[in-house]
Design goal:
Blueprint: H1 10-28, E1 51-56, E2 62-66, H2 79-91, E3 100-102, H3 105-108, E4 124-126, H4 127-135, H5 140-151, H6 154-167, H7 189-202, H8 206-210, E5 214-215, E6 225-226, E7 249-257, E8 261-270, E9 273-282, H9 285-302, E10 303-309, E11 320-322, E12 330-335, E13 339-344, E14 350-358, E15 373-382, E16 388-397, H10 406-427
Antiparallel strand pairs: 1-2, 1-9, 3-4, 5-6, 7-8, 8-9, 10-13, 11-12, 12-16, 14-15, 15-16
Organism: Paenibacillus algorifonticola
GO molecular function, one term: serine-type D-Ala-D-Ala carboxypeptidase activity
InterPro entries: Beta-lactam/transpept-like, Peniciliin-bd_prot_C_sf, Peptidase_S11, Peptidase_S11_C, Peptidase_S11_C_sf, Peptidase_S11_N
Length: about 425
């Protein structure tokens, strides 16, 4: 007796296939959705991206921003934190540029789905060579080799990254890898710019590495590493990249994973003005540079730096500060540095003294030397659109004040005693 076989309907096969495909997709999806144009935010410069910011590198003053506080995957811009920590380790003499690093198994087994320099376990390279491979070629294996050297493992280093982020006040930053390959690492454009600003202020030599166009890692290598930052000014002599080269650009870091889109943290300097930019989720390698150029053009065409108060200026109502045990009872005070804002060209800055903070009397005891900090003063600038920016500078002594002799101080104390006693008696009536 033959068993009857029920014919399989085509619709059932299609339905089963679609169900299986949806399961596969759900299993393969990452922690963050892939970036795309649906996340782009409208802005006055017509940039196609999800978030961006441009700040003055010296003051941190925001020149332009778009959705700058939303945390997003930064991709390989993550390496800026790794690069910063390495520089800190060198500054604190826990690491040296010529120190030889033996490549760990973890570094050698870095997945091949990203930039790398093809390190093998046991290879030995200097910190400097690995740092250049990370800064120029965005090499993930070199990055992990340095992370392992500092903290024993990548995850140990990740803990250090998050501690450092907290110390720097990067409130949106959450690191899960040293490289940026994981889409669970997130940070806002504003915090990324703040990190870049910290690097440039504390370690200006960083630019010596970020502006290298190409680098031969090993003598036997047949090709050199090429810098992914096509905006470098030095690329104006490169036939293939001159369309992206921008006058004054000398850093900092590009990035890409599907969840992040194409990202770029850049910096540009012309004259005494340096800007830091961040763009996140642009549509292509080329677009991240073109969108960045829109912000640079906007800033250089419309803004200028203007000093509103010169250094060594006397502050109204704070011409002098009281001190203790000096030949004089007060010391003349002036601002330590000038106060400069980035303002719209042709605009007359409106500023006012917002607040002053003078050190406690116990901290202002003679002898006082010229240049000694007496406190701080904060000025507020309001632009034509009502936006306010604060700038704080030190208030310092403009001349020396010697410590008074014991006899002078004794008579001064006696005088103060009787003045106080007289006032107390007056207050009784």
């Amino acid at each position: 007796m033959k068993a009857k076989v029920k014919p399989i309907r085509l619709t059932s096969v299609v339905a089963a296939f679609m169900a299986m495909w949806l399961v596969i997709l759900s299993l393969g999806s990452g922690a963050a959705a892939a970036a795309g144009k649906e996340d782009w935010v409208k802005n006055s410069l017509g940039m196609e991206l999800s978030s961006a910011i441009l700040i003055d590198a010296d003051s941190g003053q925001v020149i332009y921003e778009v959705n700058a506080d939303t945390p997003r995957p930064p991709a390989s811009m993550t390496k800026l934190m790794t690069e910063y920590i390495v520089l800190e380790e060198i500054t604190n003499k826990r690491l040296t540029w010529d120190q030889v690093v033996t490549v760990s198994e973890e570094a050698a087994s870095t997945p091949a789905d990203g930039s790398q320099i093809y390190l093998a376990q046991g290879d030995q390279h200097t910190v400097k060579d690995l740092y250049i491979a990370m800064a120029v070629g965005s090499a993930n294996d070199a990055t992990i080799a340095l992370a392992s050297q500092i903290s024993g493992s990548e995850q140990g280093f990740v803990a250090k990254m998050n501690e450092t982020a907290k110390e720097l006040g990067l409130t949106t930053a959450h690191f899960t890898s040293a490289t940026g390959l994981l889409d669970t690492t997130v940070i806002s454009a504003r915090d990324m710019a703040k990190l870049a600003q910290t690097i440039l202020k504390k370690h200006p030599d960083f630019l010596d590495y970020s502006k290298i166009q190409e680098y031969k890692f090993r003598e036997r290598d047949t090709a050199t590493m090429k810098n992914y930052n096509w905006m470098l000014e030095t690329n104006k002599s490169n036939t293939y990249l001159r369309a992206y080269a921008y006058e004054g650009v000398d850093g900092m870091k590009t990035g890409y994973i599907s969840a992040a889109g194409y990202t770029f943290t850049g910096t540009v300097k012309r004259g005494d003005t340096r800007y830091i930019s961040v763009v996140m989720n642009t549509k292509s390698k080329e677009a991240r540079f073109f969108e960045t150029a829109k912000m640079y053009d906007y800033a250089f065409n419309n803004f200028e730096k203007k000093s509103v108060l010169p250094a060594k200026s006397v502050v109204e109502t704070l011409e002098s500060v009281k001190i203790k045990k000096g030949v004089e009872k007060t010391v003349p005070a002036v601002t330590e540095s000038d106060i400069t804002f980035t303002v719209k060209k042709g605009a007359e800055p409106k500023i006012e003294l917002k607040e002053s903070n003078i050190l406690k009397e116990e901290e202002l005891v003679a002898p006082i030397t010229a240049g000694q900090k007496l406190g701080t003063v904060t000025y507020e600038y309001t632009d034509g659109e009502g936006n306010k920016v604060d700038r704080t500078v030190n208030l310092i002594a403009s001349e020396d004040v010697e410590k008074g002799g014991w006899l002078r101080l004794m008579f001064r104390a006696i005088g103060q005693f009787f003045v106080g006693l007289f006032n107390d008696i007056v207050n009784l009536f």
